[in-house]
Design goal:
The protein has 12 helices and 25 strands. It has 3 domains: 55 residues, no CATH class; 132 residues, Leucine-rich repeat, LRR (right-handed beta-alpha superhelix); 170 residues, no CATH class. By secondary structure, the chain is α/β, with parallel strands linked by helices. Strand 23, helix 12 and strand 24 form a beta-alpha-beta unit.
């Protein structure tokens, strides 16, 4: 913080209060800056000159930097050899088969490293350097992409006592190594698994996990894991399927008594199990239990068929927030009209008591099936507070007035409900994935204002 102090007519002095802070505080500030900006603080003043070299190191060597020229590689080597402070964050993109990264990982500048990200180019398929494992006692955040794990983890029974966030992306690992690593993470809270190769059935048991993100990659020639089992996770609150368009998997939730957030559930899923309740393409084939803990749910479908969706949602009687993503091919391939009469003598609990928020994405109000789908929730969600609908294309002003009529906004079941339409780009959830962030609703990415090209907005 600086302050302008008046010293008389036409005279001002700039007072620098930030530089008066202790070295430990200034070092923490410097360590949070991007690598280039952190290094530049050495030129601020004589007071700041030694801080960057002694502050916790934040070093990012991304794809652009590593492929730029050899001088960039030399700069990384220079930083690691000269930096005197402890390591906080090290991220590097590996694009060739040289051994330089092994040497970097052994650098004293990375002692007690807290955050590590190693990303390998797709074609390399190299083993993770064994020197990485020296950070096991101190790592808090780790991401590994495009590499192979050896059974070194199993042989040494490595422990990661401080690790809270772990991402494995396009990783080849044996079942023994995966289980050994998971069991060694006694503080793990967030786990993201994207295209895991090496065995067919991923089984997760953890006493600390709160969030799991998962997807396969059916576009590769290699066969990723085809089944995910949530076996024993007493603290799990969020399960996120990250790429529903390409997942042909079976998901079994055996024990997750605190699961509150689920999505994106697609009709591409081979099977979805909750205990002894089984769904195939969102249709219950064995309905024995209801999940009362679920609060937030996201669905993606070509239809979606209103009857199928409502019957699916009956299994989550305490649901408070629902998001439905319509795929772009939705209405051209179906003849459904989605007309469903609500029977007050057969009430649906989540509609009567709990559903407060509905979000519809990629809405196409030119199709009656789409309009009827939205109207059902307008007319029957008794405690609804807000309904947000995004369109794929911009519309003329008269279109919104007609939608108000078609959706029967005046007859909405909840008079407090705020209903609005927004114009925007097609949304397939790719930008709403927040496995590692604690959010009440990780799927809530709706803009707060209408566009300037039309009169979209609240009704």
């Amino acid at each position: 913080m600086t302050k302008m102090i008046h010293r008389g007519v036409g005279s001002w002095t700039i007072k620098d209060f930030i530089s008066r802070l202790p070295d430990a505080v200034l070092g923490s500030i410097v360590s949070l800056l991007p690598t280039k900006d952190g290094a530049r603080t050495q030129s601020v003043s004589r007071r700041w000159r030694p801080l960057w070299r002694s502050a916790p190191l934040n070093l990012v060597a991304d794809r652009e930097l590593m492929r730029k020229d050899q001088s960039s590689i030399g700069l990384i080597k220079k930083i690691l050899s000269e930096h005197q402070g402890p390591g906080r964050h090290f991220s590097v993109f590996i694009y060739d088969r040289s051994n330089r990264v092994k040497g970097w990982l052994n650098s004293k500048a990375l002692d007690n490293l807290q955050e590590l990200e190693l990303t390998y180019d797709r074609w390399l398929e190299l083993k993770l350097p064994s020197s990485m494992y020296r950070f096991a006692p101190t790592l808090r955040v780790a991401k590994f992409s495009g590499c192979h794990f050896s059974n070194f983890i199993v042989q040494l029974s490595l422990k990661f006592p401080c690790l809270k966030q772990l991402t494995l992306d396009r990783v080849t690992i044996s079942e023994d190594a995966f289980q050994s690593m998971l069991s060694g993470c006694s503080a793990l809270e967030s786990l993201e698994l994207k295209a895991i190769f090496g065995f067919a059935r991923l089984c997760i048991s953890s006493q600390t996990l709160k969030s799991v993100g998962f997807c396969t990659d059916q576009r590769t020639e290699r066969v990723p894991a085809q089944e995910l089992v949530i076996e024993d996770t007493p603290c799990l609150e969020r399960f996120l399927q990250l790429d529903p368009m390409y997942d042909r998997v079976t998901i079994r939730v055996i024990s997750a008594p605190n699961l509150k957030i689920l999505g994106v559930i697609s009709d591409f899923i081979t099977e979805l199990h909750f205990g002894t309740t089984v769904f195939k393409k969102l249709i219950a084939v064995c309905l024995t239990t209801k999940i009362y803990t679920m609060r937030v749910l996201v669905l993606q479908s070509d239809g979606p068929n209103l009857d199928t969706v409502v019957n699916f949602l009956k299994c989550f009687p305490s649901l408070e927030s629902l998001c439905v993503i319509f795929r772009s091919i939705t209405w051209s391939l179906t003849d459904m009209d989605n007309v469903r009469e609500y029977d007050p003598l057969d009430p649906i609990e989540f509609l009567e008591l709990h559903l407060k928020k509905v979000v519809l994405k990629n809405y196409d109000g030119t199709r009656s099936a789409c309009t009827n789908f939205a109207k059902f929730f307008v007319l029957n969600a008794k405690v609804l507070k807000e309904m947000k609908i995004t369109l794929r294309y911009h519309r003329r002003d008269g279109w919104f007035a007609r939608q108000r009529h078609l959706l029967q906004i005046r007859n909405r079941a909840s008079k407090d409900a705020q209903i609005e339409l927004k114009c925007g780009a097609t949304d397939y959830f790719a930008d709403n994935r927040h496995t590692h962030f604690s959010m009440a609703d990780p799927f809530d990415g709706m803009p707060s204002r209408g566009c300037s090209k039309c009169s979209c907005g609240p009704f």
